[in-house]
Give the backbone structure.
Amino acid sequence: MKEKPILAMMYDFDRTLSPRDMEEYAFIPGLGMSAKEFWAICNETAIKYEMDGILAYMLMMLQLSEGKQLVTRRSLNEVGRHVELFPGVDSWFSRVNAYAAAKGLQAEHYSISSGIKEIIEGTSIAGEFKKIYAASFCYKENGVPFWPATAVNYTSKTQFIYRINKGVLDINEDKLLNEHMAEEDKRVPFSRMIYVGDGITDVPCMKLTKENGGHSIGIYHTDSQVAKRLLQYDRVDYILPADYRAGSEIEQTVFRLIDEMAKKIEEEDHE
């Protein structure tokens, strides 16, 4: 049986699927700090040592937790259980999967985040993602982190879109990722990709997806100004409120895009 064409739905996490940065729900309160205090220290550290901002906050997670809370892979997973999601996110994936299948496509969902992978793995929607690309730690045998394994910033996010495009999902496989591959051999063409993000740090991914024939959606929660600028500067195709419930604007938009993809595939099959 011929495999169904794949639709790749790619999401930032913080402020895209969840209202706040994931560390703010349980980890930062466990330090006895406010989110504002924590992020200020992270920014100061990045400036002082000329560090990548993601590496700086990962370092501060470990240093500031000393003597206050034990950080392990398991405890970070537990933090994920406290992460709140926007309305409708819990059932969003199954609705998209069902609609895509009815149109002859197979939907796959990917998280591409600068947040902590182990926290995302503890959330209620972790099992919905084919792959979670995010910042992560190396762990000792007792589960205690000792070094960054991966740091995902706004520009390095784009490599994961190429991985999805070529079907080279293993983060350690670089040779095949960088080899030439004919368009017809690529697992998911850009034309069947939709990137969903909330802000400036998503611009490289939004631009890459949109300029290669895919679609980008800017999400906003309470303030739409950033999203409006993304639309103004042609970084996204749509700006939509962070409401994923059945019948919502984002559902209607994504379903319409799926219709267009299915129609294009049908036309190509009859050429």
User: Anything to note?
Assistant: The CA atoms of residues 22 and 191 lie 31 Å apart. The longest strand covers residues 106-116. The two ends are 21 Å apart (CA to CA).
